[in-house]
Sequence to fold (347 residues):
Amino acid sequence: MNRTLIHLTALMLAVTGLASAQTGRLTLQGAVTRALESGADVTTARANLQKAQANLRAVRADPTTPITTLTQAEQDVAGQAATLAATKLATAQTVITQYLGASDTAERLSVAAAQVALSERQLKIAQARLAARVATTLDVSRAQNALNGDRQDLQSAREQLPVLEAQLARSLNLPAGTDLTLSAPPAPPKLSVTLAALQAGLDKRLPALVQAANGSAFAALQVKLADNDYTPARTLEDARVSAQNAQRSLDDATRSAATQVRDAYRTVQDAQERVALARESLANTQTSLTQAQARLKAGTAAAVDVQQAQVQTQQAALNVTQASGNVWKALAALGSAAGLDVTGLVK
Fold:
């Protein structure tokens, strides 16, 4: 994996009226931690939870509070807590995706530049062969078109990188003038939790399910309160129908969420397998490079053959990096689907 550090120039803002330049090194863990500490969405969700907790304390302190009001206040706290946890996971998923996008693009720039150098050399060879009358103008045209395409790929990557860096900078809420260096992302962790464990307790973690579970519980409470001699029978019957509907909605939402978790789990497994395939491909290209170098030394291969093998090895190494990045992304998506962090980055 290419360990070349990627320079990220953050957006220049004013801090206490002065522009200050700061230099730091950022890791994937550090980026996620920073976003969780200062990100706008997490800050808002945390404030909403604190507001709900304050309201619950006030409701509990009032001895005249009706049971329905107390229940709703308790459910609001549970809902806001689930929302905060889900927001953290969603924020981590966003930062992981943005971090890997900037990192991969910077590495792709190196590969694209090497490809352009190779194509330039191949064009010169085609032109020389044409001059020697052992090639046609079509061969030269094809080599030129290949070079033009490679140059466009390189330019596209150059233009894309600042955009990705700016998106990451915004998510991290970077201070003015910060000039960061992104470290290469580490290898993703192995998925150690079982699918059954991730599917269990979804109604306690996912905001939508927590809301549905709260609705079902409150509907059941309404049935209990209406089940007496002084409440009209029609009211009790309506409450029972509402409770049944709420339970069905909860069951349906739970099944849907469990299916999403299962799909996300399979995506992680597939991504992990593809890392192994990418590493095997890299090993093969490294062997081919070694063989090309040996043939060059023995006089049975040209320098351009070695250069081509070098580019292929760089591309294979990039493929390994991207495959590992896909595992990180799949883990983050699984965490969001299950309401439980499996990346090890959400503290």
